[in-house]
Write a structure and sequence with these properties.
By secondary structure, the chain is of the alpha+beta class. The protein contains 13 helices and 22 strands. Strand 19 and strand 20 form a beta hairpin. Helix 4 packs antiparallel against helix 5 and helix 5 crosses helix 8. The longest helix is centred in the last third of the chain and has 19 residues. The termini are far apart.
């Protein structure tokens, strides 16, 4: 399966052509092509087929082939006896989010899920994609490696890899560097201030801290695709695609720390969700929702590790780190939603409410992005208490990574997560699980007291106690707080 893509900068289209050759030719057959309905990490049915137009199919001599659209996102083609077909279509690319493609006058962001079809029932084809760049465009940034000497051509071993590898095309700031035995690329659409504020050095420190934490690096090369002003980020095993404030000259230190936490979040996702996956997310099905009760782990604990990684990297002070965590706390603790929806249930219902901004949202729902990191803190403290600081949540993450990703090469179930936590803690974490599974009130001060932390309900912040005991001081030191 070989794709060629022309970029239409005037009308915001990707013009796509697929050259397909069947692996066996035993007479006329049907080819069913499917356009994905969602992008992993973006828990909303985006139905990318809505952006597709002018579908056509022909044989290698240019003669039209019979085809029919089947359902919302399938195209059935009558393939000739030689098993070859040329399929073409256009994809409208004018949305500014990290799961959708965008074509502008001098840059294009390609989200592969919405640009390339796969064969129904078989995502394991090797696939090659070649881009025909507009005149004056010189760069393509992606986690994929170029195919041979052609810098505009890339090969993925299967569609899972292709869909997990966004691309930025055009003219933009790039910098390649090596760090601790791996290759990296910065691809910044709006790079103002990146060099003077030391962004590369901060990123290196985040990488080093994460490598020390997890004990392994699951990629050969990694690409940071940072686009202009906008919102959102999406994790990938070989890259991250994020919108920024349009500059790296931050208005305040607080804004800079928040952004670095955002970068650390997307980077840690390559471990926690790309490798440490809930069983429902592996293997991937691009045609239907991947409903799991464990997104509070995949997303919520990743939010917790934003503040942990910045501390491990030596980037933030204790006050800055706690402020980062407190921001999440303040976004759910004062609201009624936590009395109506458990953290576990929020993992299911995200498919109904991913971008739901109704006025009553915080009164009837809880968001795992906000409550998840606070439960992460409580879980971390509980493990440390039960093991006299010999073990922590870090050990749970390493166990999940090594056992289920590296050794068993599969996702973990809900019960296996709690069994892993029990194995590390030495006893079941019954109370923390109850706080995840129910809407029970949480006695934060009691659960945080061993760590020398408390909750200030006037601003819903998590802070150190005023006069920590020697035991609390030792606990804070061990947590690097």
């Amino acid at each position: 399966m070989d794709y060629t893509v022309d970029v239409d900068t005037a009308d915001h289209y990707l013009n796509v052509q697929l050259s397909y050759a069947a692996s066996a030719t035993d007479g006329p057959s049907e080819l069913m092509l499917v356009m994905p309905r969602w992008a992993p990490g973006y828990y909303e049915m985006l139905d990318f087929a809505k952006d597709l137009t002018d579908f056509a199919a022909a044989d290698t001599a240019g003669r039209a082939l019979s085809w029919q659209k089947v359902g919302l996102n399938r195209w059935r083609i009558d393939v000739p006896q030689d098993g070859r077909a040329v399929v073409s279509y256009r994809v409208y690319a004018n949305r500014r989010d990290v799961a959708s493609s965008r074509v502008e006058g001098d840059v294009a962001f390609v989200a592969p899920n919405g640009a390339f079809m796969y064969v129904d029932g078989d995502q394991q084809h090797e696939v090659t994609v070649r881009f025909c760049l507009p005149e004056g465009w010189h760069r393509i940034a992606t986690g994929l490696r170029p195919h041979g000497v052609d810098s505009c051509c890339f090969t993925a071993k299967d569609f899972d890899v292709l869909y997990d590898s966004p691309l930025l095309l055009g003219n933009f700031y790039t910098k390649r560097f090596a760090h601790e035995g791996h290759d990296y690329e910065l691809a910044l659409e709006t790079p103002e201030g990146a060099e003077e504020t030391g962004f590369e050095e901060d990123f290196r420190r985040i990488v080093s801290a994460t490598t020390t934490l997890m004990g392994d690096v699951p990629y050969d090369n990694y690409c940071l695709i940072h686009m202009g002003k906008g919102q959102g980020g999406l994790e990938h095993l070989n890259s991250q695609a994020c919108y920024t404030d349009g500059t790296y000259r931050f208005d305040s230190r607080r804004a800079q720390v928040k952004f670095l936490g955002f970068v650390a979040h997307e980077y840690f996702h390559l471990y926690n969700v790309k490798c440490i996956r809930p069983a429902e997310l592996w293997p991937l099905d691009y045609d239907r929702e991947a409903v799991t009760p464990m997104l509070w782990v995949s997303e919520g604990l990743t939010c917790y590790y934003e503040f942990r990684l910045l501390q491990y990297a030596g980037i933030t002070t204790t006050d800055e780190a706690l402020e980062l965590l407190s921001t999440y706390f303040s976004l759910y603790a004062p609201f009624e939603g936590q009395k109506h929806m458990s953290l576990r249930q929020s993992s299911y219902d995200i498919w109904l409410n991913f971008m739901n901004q109704d006025n009553n949202a915080r009164d009837i729902r809880v968001n795992y992005y906000f409550k998840g990191p606070v439960i992460g803190l409580l879980l971390d403290v509980a493990i440390r208490v039960k093991t006299a600081q010999r073990q922590s949540l870090d050990d749970v993450m390493r166990l999940l990574y090594n056992r289920y990703y590296r050794e068993l090469q599969r996702g973990f179930t809900e019960e296996e997560f709690w069994l892993a936590a029990t194995e590390v803690a030495g006893e079941p974490l019954t109370e923390i699980r109850r706080l995840v599974d129910t809407t029970a009130d949480i006695d934060y001060d009691r659960l945080l007291a061993p760590a020398g932390l408390c909750v200030n309900t006037s601003d819903w912040s998590i802070r150190q106690v005023t006069s920590p005991t020697p035991a609390q001081q030792a606990f804070l030191k061990a947590m690097r707080l």
